[in-house]
Specification:
alpha/beta
Amino acid sequence: MTAALVRAAGDLAREMARLDLRGRIRLVEDRIPGRLVFTTSLGIEDQALTHALALSKGRTEIVTLDTGRLFPETYDVWTETEAAYGIRIRAYAPERIAEEDFVAREGINGFRHSVAARQACCGFRKVEPLGRALDGAAAWFTGLRAGQSANRADTPLAEADEGRGLIKVNPLADWTRADVDAFVRDNFIPYNTLHDRGFPSIGCAPCTRAVKIGEDERAGRWWWEQESKKECGLHLHRPEGDVAPGQEAAAFEEPAGAATAREHRRELV
């Protein structure tokens, strides 16, 4: 099964390369039988993909992982998106006991105390709900792009997720950030207003800051850890390292201030 999955993903990626976004979606929906799931973080790439999926009126389910620690602006764009496209985005939430036990043991922001604690927090807030969201799925759509960070530079248009036994489809893998911005602007797609304030990548509020001039798009995610740690466990491409000396954060370190955000402002409309 594994070899067949790898071959199928490779064939799909080669065919996707010559198609536009809607063509890529149609190819996947035509080629792969079974349940298809798109997990949106409601970031700008995922908004572009939501737009294309909603207009295609295909059979791909659009879901999200509501970690309970998202920015208010993220909930706002979630509401706006459902209204704009006449859809419901199903939410998968953390398991209650795991969350309560973590907070009792580590504190409300205890994920900053150690790499293990942060991974545990991502585990029950994201990884476990993702497992439920993808249960029985044959393919998983994501908004990953190769240009988002060094960790994602080798992202293909489609790949075999052998651990989950499905094909992971990344229709925007070869898009640049400029491509995404233009697509969102030209199609009047709702987007998170934090993108206008220096947040190219948006996750949980206490784990995301605005990026600084010259930093890559995901530098504001878990900024107290070294670059090889900048994943939550949903998308892993290479081994992870430890937090570098001097990068350890105070227990309640705050994100970068508004001045940094304004300095890196990105205008979309």
